[in-house]
Model the fold of this input.
Amino acid sequence: MIRIIAVSYLNTKPLVYGLERGMLPSGYELSFEIPSVCAQALIEGNGEIGLIPSLEYQRIPDLTLVPDIGIAARGAVQTVLLVAEVPISSLQSVILDYSSRTSNALVQILLARKYKRSLSFRMGKPGYEGEIRGRQGGLIIGDRAFLYRRQFPYVYDLALEWQEWTGLPFVFAFWAAKLGSLCEELIQALYQSLEVGLEHIPEIAREWAQLHGGSPDVYESYLTSTILYKLGSKEYEGLRRFYHLAGQQGLISELRELNAGH
Done:
């Protein structure tokens, strides 16, 4: 079996909706992890296809991406936040989120280049949210952000910060595969799975609220008005800008061009 690993977040649900309901071609199996583990599985050979955070494309050799679909935002994304008790101008340090190197790179780029701040960073461990206090801020990503955004007086949405600074969307994740693992049948299944998912967003929002609490209306608005699933020229321009800046900041060692599946 060829293993497909997706991210276990709400914003992933429209992408995998059809795959979980019979659209997955024979010979493939689907599992879920946090973003960093999803990428690590491809590195270690424990998976062949993954919904990877965008920075990981530059770290994992011999990847092909599935073109034109992923997870992106034009403006506020709501689930990638720098939170603090003081404004950025007063911060001394930031705790990074263990879930995703992409968001960690984004906050470092924005603080250095947009805000001209030289801060110290350290990786957080599960439960690090309780350490965000005083002049120490924290990066919080994923579904936890819905909760923690209301607990701090200073909340910076990093996708909005990026868009205001660059004028471009930000691409957080996309499907990528090790060479030889991606066939046309699977590519079409991934496209069709998303189309079916987009048609069932109200159901996805209700199911998520039943399992995790919160408001279905908030989740439905998030999935329809905040997240972009279809990537166009502007999204790829934003992605290339991110890679360029990450290279300048020393966050990636070698800049590779995007290699599409077809």
Observations:
- The chain has two domains: 2-73+171-248, 80-166.
